[in-house]
Amino acid sequence: MKYAIITGASKGLGEAIAKRLIHEQIAIVSVSRTENEEIKRMALEKGLYYNHFSCNLSLEKEVQEVFMDIAHCLFQKDPKEILLFNNAGVIEPIQTVGNLDQTPTIRNIQVNLIAPILITNLFFSKAQLTNTKVQVINVTSGAAIRSIEGWSVYCSSKAGLNMFTQTAALEQAEMKTDNKIIAFSPGIMDTNMQETIRSSSKNAFKELERFKEFKENNMLLQADVVANALVDLVISGNVESGKVYNVKELVGE
Ligand SMILES: NC(=O)c1ccc[n+]([C@@H]2O[C@H](COP(=O)([O-])OP(=O)(O)OC[C@H]3O[C@@H](n4cnc5c(N)ncnc54)[C@H](OP(=O)(O)O)[C@@H]3O)[C@@H](O)[C@H]2O)c1
Prior knowledge:
48% of the residues lie in helices and 15% in strands. It has helices at residues 12-23, 37-45, 60-75, 102-128, 152-174, 192-198, 208-216, 223-236, 247-251, and strands at 2-7, 27-32, 50-54, 81-86, 133-139, 180-185, 244-246.
C-alpha cells in the first residue's frame, strides 16, 4: 500500500494534491493547522486510510512530536512506499530588508525550510530500518532562483529548500537507497497565497501591480491543473532524484 503525507493539505495546492491522490487510491495523511472536511469525506467514501494531524509547522517541538507520531503510525503498517509532500508554505513577511519584523521572518524559515528538513531527515532515518521506499517532494518556487524585491525571506527559504533537495539526493544516491527527493516549482497559482501577495503594500513589494494584473488577466494557474501534473510525474516512477522540476515542463507550456 502507498501512503502520502501532505503538509498544507487544508487548502490551495495541498488540497488539490490530496484530492488527486485519493482518486489514485493512495492513503492520505493530512498535516496542517485546520482540517479539510471535504478531503476527509472523499477518502472515507473511497474506503481509504485517512488521518489528519493538526500541527503548526512553525513550532519545532510540534513538528518533532507530530511527525514522530505519524512515522510510528505509518511504519508499523510496513508500507511499500511513502510519498512525502512538503507543500505547506508562507509568503510573509513581504517587506524590504531593514523593515523586517523578527517573528514572521523566523516563522517563514521554520515553515518553508526547517520543517521540510526535519521531516525528511526523520523519514529517511526510519526508511533505513525498513523495506519502505520514501519519495520526498519539496514544493519550491521560481522565487528560489529569481530575486524579488520585498520577498527576501521567502526567496531565501525556497533557495535553501532547493539546495537541501539536491544535496540529500546526492547522499541517497551515494548510499544506493531506493529513496528519491525532488523539488517542484508550481508556477503562479490562484490560491490564498496570491491573495496575500495582492493585499501587500506597494512600498514593501515593488511588483504589486504586476501580480494584480496576473489575476485580472486570468493568468494564474489553477491548483488542480498543477496538482495533476505533479502527481502524474510522481506516480509515473520516472522521477529524477535531485532535480528541481518546473510545472511548465510538465504541462508542456
Ligand atoms: N500560490 C502560488 O502562486 C505559489 C507560487 C510558487 C510556489 N508556491 C508554493 O506552493 C505551496 C502551496 O502554496 P499555496 O499557494 O497552496 O498556499 P495557500 O493556499 O496559502 O496554502 C498554504 C497551506 O500551508 C499551510 N500552512 C501555512 N502555514 C502553516 C503552519 N504554520 N503550520 C501548518 N501548516 C501551515 C496552510 O494550512 P493551515 O492554514 O490550515 O495551517 C495551507 O494548507 C507553498 O509551498 C508555496 O510556497 C505557491
